[in-house]
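Archive entry: two folds, one per protein. Generate the first.
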Amino acid sequence: MNQNNEKTFKTLDEQISILREKGMIINDENYAKEVLLRENYFFLHGYRYPFLKSKDDKFYIKGTNFEELYSLFLFDRQLRNIIFKNILIIENNIKSIFSYQLSKKYGYKEKDYLNPKNFNTAKEKRKQVNDLLAKMKRQMKKNISTHSATMHYVNNYGYVPLWILVKVLSFGIVSELFSILKKEDQYDIVDIYGLDIDVFSNYLSILSNYRNLCAHEDIVYDNKTNKEIEDTRFHRMLNIPIMDNEYIYGKNDLFAILIIFKSLLKQEELKNLVLEIKHILDNLDYNLKTISIDKVLDRMGFPKNYEEIVTIEKSDLFNYQ
């Protein structure tokens, strides 16, 4: 290892010096030190990119001040909380729908609803089915002595119904559960949302990834996912520009998440979510001096008319007629 490239510990004074050497204005050193101590220089530094002169230039745009950088950091924290809150709403809805549909068809005792015969019986799915059911059983046993509802059902009834088990399953496990269901059971679930199976499965995978990002306080506002969502009529109705035969927004960015929310949340929930995002964007816009809010929107993958997503009917999203 080249020791010259090692990242060594830096005191708060040294961190301030590095920021100033790169062209950042720091008017209140004590305030900046307090923020750096509480928030971590490395995490705060991750928000520098919109303020740099170029991709290859590590120096800040002339006039960039510490408060602007911190404002973007705080904006992302608020945005992350909004996204996380709404993913939890969707997660709860999906768990409720899964448990209702499967319990109605296969029974409410674990020996019934966790029977491998209830799931996709294709040879290539056999190992995945057995592995996932084993995970679910382990999760159930793990929570018998720690999760009050699980404990209550075991002690009083001798079994754990699926509507209780789903509460302790991760979103990742629930997403995978959908992939091993029989086709007719998948159709029963996706029909509730008016989506097709592949679209719904992709949405679950992407939301599971964002849930983890939010839970671990990673940068969310300009995150790009490995998976893309399909084109919707919505992209066309908002006149999202196309480059190289691909929409430039709403494919693997935060706006794609908003499209997913459009499909899975109730109308009033989506309206409140967009209002909350608008509020924190307006606040950030007020605090930015050296860059425009449009630069942040672009990194988010948000078109300027993003609010119009609220007024588009859900039935229009996948209808190209």
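Generate the second and append.
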Amino acid sequence: MSFSFHVPTNFVFGQGAIQKLHKQRLPGKKAMIVISNGKSTRANGYLDTVQDQLTQAGVEYAVFDKILANPVIANVMDGAVFGRENGCDFVIGLGGGSSIDAAKAIAMMIPNEGNYWDYIYGGTGGGQRMKNKPLPIVAIPTTAGTGTELDAWTIITNEETNEKMSGGNKNTFPVLAIVDPDFMLSVPPRFTAYQGFDALFHSAESYINKTNNLMRDMIALKAIECVGRNLATACTDGGNVKAREQVAFGSSLGGLVMSVDNLCSEHSLEHPLSAYHPEIAHGAGLIMISRAYYTHMAQNCPELKDRFVDMAKALGKEDAAEAMDFVTALVDLQKACGVDELKMSDYGITPEEFPTFVANARSTMGILFKMDRIQLSDEDLVKIYTESYK
């Protein structure tokens, strides 16, 4: 039951938290603000608010607005050049998980030479050690999903090889995270659901993996409860601050979970979907495979029964007594959020791709398969994809 838990992030949470940004100890004099290539960060006034807070703090800034929904190496390398040319000494990720992940990767590359992929372990990554520490990172999420504001990890896609892989190290923990539900009220219902289920699965995967960790168990169950009991309301009533706050807290707890433990293979199975078909939102991919994935685990790993019952109760199914009760509660939540009928075929996926997905999952995120309590064969993985296909 031993564990090591170290999250060196100043975590400022709650409605109105963004107004406290200028009072925080910021890690430099000129910020590189990393946002997506979409319109929402500007249109909803989030960028203006952050810029005003930095001005009050006496901090200069430059805005880099090129990040894709599934960030790629080119985003990172272009951002690193931008940061150097503008003399930035710390990086702010403002937006969804993609913007914050990209900010972490850019912070790694501004002071280092070569290509970002040179420093990735696994797959075709170069596995090199960085000579210089990343620039300090500040995370300001405008969505509730990844929990990346409280962990060290970043997900970037190599478009040339269709590899979507994790990077980062102990120095890519944000030094400051501001999580304000007021910055999340404008997220549309469907994306609220996608992001919320990503947050939910971070904790669910961790809770059923093969580690025994008291700290993980405590955090993961509370995260599942916060997300599971409030996500449907956040989807149907986006202006409900209480529901948004609960989902945001559950998402951030998921980041803590990944800082004290790890996931298991559901995330490994999703990454090829959005690597080969980048128009798929990560959370949508997870939803598509979740019913078959958790059914397989519930039916083939009897030792997980109590853990599945725990998770079902956390979702609100108080009378849960069997492992499959979690799957029932999960599907009910997906129906309540309007995302139970997502189809792989709508994104151009064909069953002929499944063996390729399996090989890709093993190559890029193979470490997560080692966290499963049962060994999944390639045939098992193809079966999970097949049973998820519509």
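Annotation attached to the second fold: The first helix runs from residue 40 to 43. The mean pLDDT is 97.
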